[in-house]
Design brief:
alpha+beta; globular; 548 residues; 12 helices; eight-stranded antiparallel sheet; 20% strand; FAD/NAD(P)-binding domain; seven-stranded mixed sheet
Amino acid sequence: MPDRHWDAIVVGSGANGGLAAKLLAEGGARVLILEAGRPVEEIGGYANGWMAAGSKLNRRLVSRRQHIQSHHATYWTTNPNFFVDDLDNPYSTPEDKPFHWIRGRVVGGRTLTWDGVTPRMSDFELAAASRDGVGIDWPLRHADLAPFYDRVERYFGVHGNRDGLPQLPDGDFVSGRSLNANEQVFRGRVESEFPERRIILSRGIDAGRAPEKNAQHSRLSNLTTTLRDAARTGRAQLRANAVVSRVLLHQDGRSARGVEYIDADTRVLHAASADRIFLCASTIESVRLLLNSSTPKHPHGLGGCSGHLGRYLMDHSASNLYFQLPDVPVSRQPHPLRGSEAMMVPRFTNLTEQNADHLRGYGMWGGIDRIFMPGWVRAHPGEAFGFLCTRAEVLPHYDNHVSLDPELRDAWGIPCVRINCAWQHGDLAILSAARRAALEMVEAAGGEVAELSEWVRPGVSSVFAQVEAGWRTSVPGLFAHELGGARMGASPEESVVDRNCEVWDVKNLYVTDGACWPSSGWQNPTLTELAITARTVDVVLRERAAKM
């Protein structure tokens, strides 16, 4: 069935899709947003912790239709309907390489389950390959992204302090909060022994996942920000239940003319045309669309001529360490755990020179007396209770990749992906170093590692799987920071998209979500993804204006 012609089609209504639609529409473009999932209003909204988070009883009650999604911590504390049906949306992996792909197929995407932690990337990450020879440098530097970081931070109201750290550039912040009293004690003790390990206030958005009083949605959800503002222009239309199956090309095969999509309910096939196509469907889904859009002129998928399409899949590896401070009493008042209300330890290794037994670096995020933990589940109820979550960079490995499964199809008959990804030696070395550093910091603060009751472990950090005594480590994919597969680069021989996120061999097709990343860094990726999306839209609008 034909559709009207649009100036731009945006595939996906999550963080990047919402921002792309807003900026394009505000720039005068007529935009069609295609979202495979349903509106929140049709699936029950925010569930407000309708089950006690992740208890063993609840795990026995998990629907078999979400056997992957139910492993994620936010599954129990938001709404299971925010996540995909694993049986309708299957994928395959090698038996010895599990990958837990967490997906938010709903209008708003994973902004409904986002933490709102927003650190910037630095040139230590963007130009890492020049230092250690692993992978390729980004064709961008912080100076290229800074104006767009500024714009995004102002729009969302990112809080933080100006700490003056080159490895974590300062932003255009709303005034920062303060660490709580017990976190300040922890910081003083750690920094006195390890002055290079700075403990700072987290950078992030001052909102929780649950809507505030009298609000329909949380301020972390783009239903209250970018999607709302895109709709207000009168130039953007959002179409839910639209499962995009492939990108359509002009006859010469050199540019995109639109997309094909299936109505999720009626199974009717539609086509929509546009001058430009933005893939913001989330990392693996965007790669899947590029692979599924192969033609005789593009037999390996759109952007596949270099041999790099689907390659270098990454996800941050993470470990949680829980601890108590025996000589520090627990806070009498509760403290929130939010993007703007927590501790952050920026990367401190391998900055000016290679000085460790691992490449690149890691950071940490955590807090003290910010997780509600009843006294009966810990050994010393009166002591301050804290955690550190290490977030380690995962290196870009050619063998970690996404391909099309030759047999598997989803509920709409679209070929599914096969994900082949595992932590490799270099990744484990970074992770091991991060663990040692976290333990050293707890010991320097006079703390003791806390072993949680088996009853509460799944609810506190169900994103983690126990692999070593005292440590819980994420399975690839479960941290939901997947990146790569359509990396950007300086030439078509080494990458899938250029520095403006345009596919080298298909003009007017852009990939601005995490798929375009050449390396992972240690930072939470959403803010940088948004800055990249804003930069790409700015390039497109300037080119459009020049032709008018």
